[in-house]
Structure formats: C-alpha cells, structure tokens
Design a protein that fits this description.
The chain is mostly helical. Helices cover about 75% and strands about 0% of the residues. The longest helix has 18 residues. The termini are far apart.
Length: about 325
C-alpha cells in the first residue's frame, strides 16, 4: 500500500517537474491541465491519510492559491512538520507575476517557520522559493544552496527544482556563469531538451560572450519552432527564455516569429508589442500593432492595456484614458 503510494507520488513529482517549463505563463493566469494533477489526485485517493501528495499538489501550483493553502492545511493535519507547512504557505503567498501577491502574509509565515529549529532540504527549497518571490535574491540563493548541500547525492525532483530556482536566482544577481552551471545540471538531471530550455542556455552563452554560438542556436531554435508549429504557450516560453539574453534583437526576432505563427493570440501580440515598445523603442509601430489586433485579440485586457500605454507614450491622452477604461472593465482577467 505504502509502496504504491510512494510510486504515485514519485511519478506525480516528476510529471510536475516536466510541466514546469512555462511557469511564468501560469502566473499570468493561463491555467493548463496537467498530468501531475491527476496523479496527485490518485495518490490522495489511494492513501488519504498521508501528507506527501497534498504538499506536492500545493507546491506544484495546480489551481488557485486558496486550493494550495487548503492542501497545505490538509498535509499539516496528516503530519507535515509545522516548519515545512509555514514555509509552504510563505511560498504560495509570495508568488505573483508583477509583484508578490501577499507579501505581508509571506513574511509572517517565514517568521513563524523560523521559530522551529529543525530544517530539511525541502524546507530550504521552500524558504528559497518564498524569498525569491519576495525579491530577496541574495537570501534566496543562500537558502537554495543550503538545501542543495543538504541533499547532495539526491537525484530526485526536489534537486531539479532547487537547481532550476537557483539558476533563475543567479540570473537576477547577474551571475551568468553560475546560472549556466545550475541550469545545465538541472537540464541533464531530467533529460530536458525542450526548445525553451535550449533557448535559455543560448541566452546564457550570449551573456558570457559566446555570441556566435548563441546566435546560431537562437536562429536554429526559432526555425525548429516554426517548422514544428508549436502552440502559443510554447512560443511564450521561448520568448521568456530569449529575453534572458538582454539583447533587443533576440526579443525582436523571436517575438516576430511567434506573432506571425499565431496572429490571433492576444498573449503573443502583447509580447510583440512589448518588444517594439520596450526593447526597440518603436512606439508608433507598437501602437499600429495594438490597433491591428484581430477580433479574438481586440477585446482582451492585454490589447486594451497595450493601446493605452502606446497612446500615452505618444501624448494622445484622451484616447489613452478611453483605452485604459476599457482595460479596467476587463481587469478581473488579470488581478495584478
């Protein structure tokens, strides 16, 4: 009974790791159906008295924050250590696309966790995730490093998650060599050959001065994405990875290819708009793009918001106010 439960949890954990690539898109409110969700549900049905699957389902971010907090409560009621429960809640509260959604609650949960002295590698990972969400990157790196040192020799999903998050943390600290080392190790651990992961590696090469190698890889990946007709969320992931290069041309090339592949996507239109306005400074072109949106994209929060920004940039304030009002009428789509 317990062996079957552990096997289901292992499978769910690795499924969650494989599905993690488009983490930013979920923070923008695009919930995807995940295989891990069903596996965690199966594990809970198999052994409802155990806490592991409840915690896994909570921190793999399937569902809303309310569901995640309920899962943490359920795990704690079934024996999850109090320190780990507080850290899991801190992680959930700290998440947010633009800024932490509940920073005070996240800090309160961290302080509650620090009242308990015993700490595991899982605790260190959750602490690092919460600190990353709170934009305390140096503290996050220390916590994640402590967890990786504690779990040295462990090759499961927790190690991948910690390596991946430390790579992102080191990006924020502009430690590109460290980010490349961590991301390469995480990629090797799970055999990740996704377009997004390979684009992120190319971005690191660019940052480290390997420009010819990086550009050749970027062009090859964009061509592969066009040839295989990937979906809009996969293009989103490719764009997020390309932005790590810090090079406007990378965002230009990738965002144009993405928008050309899915011209009716409000998501990719928004990314193309951002490339024109923010990376390239082409404000007239950005406005023309926002105003050319097709029917499917025209009445979205993102498109109205983009139009408002572009019109304000061009000092067309009456029109910008009108577009802002239209965006606010749809604000429930994007709470942040």
């Amino acid at each position: 009974h317990r062996l079957e439960y552990d096997a289901l949890c292992d499978e769910a954990d690795f499924a969650a790791v494989r599905e993690w690539g488009l983490h930013e898109s979920e923070l923008a409110g695009m919930e995807r159906e995940r295989r891990s969700r069903g596996l965690y549900d199966q594990a809970i049905a198999h052994a409802p008295e155990q806490w592991r699957a409840y915690l896994g389902r909570a921190i793999s971010r399937v569902g809303t924050i309310e569901l995640g907090l309920a899962d943490v409560d359920a795990a704690e009621a079934r024996g999850l250590p109090a320190r780990t429960a507080h850290l899991a809640r801190a992680f959930l509260y700290s998440e947010g696309y633009v800024a932490p959604r509940f920073p005070k609650e996240a800090v309160d949960e961290l302080q509650a966790a620090y009242q308990f002295s015993e700490a595991s590698a899982l605790d260190a990972y959750l602490e690092g995730r919460a600190l990353y969400g709170l934009r305390r990157y140096e503290d996050a790196e220390r916590a994640l490093t402590r967890g990786l040192d504690q779990g040295r020799g462990e090759q499961g999903p927790l190690r991948w998650l910690a390596l991946y998050r430390r790579a992102l943390t080191r990006e924020r600290l502009e430690d590109w060599a460290g980010a490349l080392q961590d991301f390469s190790a995480a990629q090797e651990l799970v055999g990740d050959e996704s377009l997004e992961s390979r684009m992120r590696l190319a971005s690191y090469w660019w940052r480290l001065g390997q420009t010819d190698r990086a550009t050749a890889q970027r062009d090859r990946l964009v061509t592969d994405a066009q040839a295989t007709e990937i979906g809009e969320l996969a293009w989103w992931g490719l764009l997020v990875a390309a932005k790590q290069s810090g090079e406007p041309d990378w965002v230009d090339v990738t965002s144009k290819a993405a928008h050309d592949a899915h011209p009716d996507s409000a998501l990719l239109l928004g990314m193309r708009f951002s490339a024109l306005r923010d990376e390239l400074g082409e404000r007239e072109a950005a406005l023309a793009l926002a105003q050319s949106a097709g029917d499917a994209a025209r009445e979205s929060f993102v498109t109205h918001s983009n139009r408002a920004q572009a019109l304000a940039d061009l000092k067309r304030h009456d029109e910008a106010l009108e577009a802002s009002t239209a965006a606010l009428a749809l604000a429930d789509e994007r709470p942040e």
